[in-house]
Amino acid sequence: MKKVMLCAAALMCGAAVFAQGNTSSVTQTGSGNGSMVTQTGMTNDSDVDQTGDLNMSDVDQDGVTNLSDVDQFGDSNTSGVDQLGDGNDSQVIQSGDNNTSSVDEDGNDNDSFVWQDGDSNLNETIQNGNDNNSYVDQWGDTNDAYTEQQGNNNNAETYQGYGSGGGNNTSDIWQTGNDNDANTFQNGNFNFGQAEQIGNNNSGDIDQNGDNNYAGAGQYGDDNTSTIDQAGDDNYALTLQTGNNNISYVAQTGNTNFSLVQQVGLFNGSAVLQTGDNNFSNVGQVGNANNSLVNQNGDNNGSDVFQNGNNNSSGVSQQGDDNTSDVDQIGLLNNSSVFQSGTNNDSTVLQDGNFNFSDVKQVGFDNISDVLQDGNANSSGVIQTGNNHNSVVSQIGNNNTSTVVQSN
């Protein structure tokens, strides 16, 4: 009786082992296609479908319950999938000719999706950690996407030529840490987007519509947010944030606009809005809880804002062409507002100290305003309406008040 029971137990054990085998399916239609599948572990699943000529696929799965699906339609496409760990999921779709994709997942429960629709597109996806997600969608020709995620619960999405079949776009995403999110959307030709995030809970979003645009976002710390929107051609935007809880927003509509934002510290906020052509904006903030707003509407406007300290606020609005503004704030709780409407107006504001206030309004042509505040709790107001006015305000000390009004 015991021997019968032992034999029955052996049969049950053998059935369990058999049920935990790996599964591989390869379907090839055409000439000169090549597929290699290597599976080590249990319950791994690989499906390769090749339709066309000279396509190559290499799948390597080592672990438990990994899933790989490769579909190649066209000629001379190449796909490599390497999964090490448990519960990883990869899907690669190549439709066209000479596309290349490489996916490397090392860890558990990572998810990767790659869709290349066109010719000569290139993708490389690297995910090391757990529960990371990568999505790459390439339409058109000669697009290049690189995604690298080190850590847990990171998300990266890349869309190139989406809906229009653009080409020659480049997207690079690097994320190191946990719970980071980066998105790149490129619609047009020869756009270049880069996002690097080191830390936790950072969010970066790049949206490019047009040709020859560059957008870069570097975030180093935790809970930082960067958004760059470009619509037009030959625009340049770079945002660098070091610290925690910083926010940057850049919107460029037009051609050949330039924006540089650098923030170091905690809870700093910057917004740059450029509408027109050949506008220039440079924002630098060092410290905590500083705030800057730059709004340029027209052509060839220039704005420089530098804040060093805490709780400083700067607002610059330029409406028209060839206006220039320079704002420097050093200290605590300084406030500067500059409004320029017209052509060829120039404003300079320097605040060194604490609790200083400056308000400059220039409407017309060729007006010049210089404000210097060195001390604490100084207040200056300048209003110039018309053409060719010149105002100089110098306040050295504390609690000084000045008002200038000029018109013609």
Structure description:
Belongs to the CsgA/CsgB family. Residues 185-194, 307-320 have a biased composition (Low complexity). Residues 1-19 form the signal peptide. This protein is mainly β and 408 residues long. The protein has a domain at 267-407. The chain is 4% helix and 76% strand. The chain has one helix spanning 2-19; strands at 23-31, 34-42, 45-53, 56-64, 67-75, 78-86, 89-97, 100-108, 111-119, 122-130, 133-141, 144-152, 155-160, 170-178, 181-189, 192-200, 203-211, 214-222, 225-233, 236-244, 247-255, 258-266, 269-277, 280-288, 291-299, 302-310, 313-321, 324-332, 335-343, 346-354, 357-365, 368-376, 379-387, 390-398, 401-407. The chain has an 18-stranded parallel sheet, with no helix packed on it. It has a 17-stranded parallel sheet, with no helix packed on it. It is elongated, with a radius of gyration of 29 Å. The termini are far apart. The model is unreliable at 1-18 (pLDDT under 50).
Helical content class:
under 10%
Class inferred from helices and paired strands? mainly beta
Head-to-tail CA distance between termini: 116 Å
Which overall shape is indicated by the principal axes computed on the Cα atoms?
A: elongated
Beta-strand share of residues:
over 45%
> What Rg, in angstroms, do the CA atoms define?
29 Å
Number of helices: 1
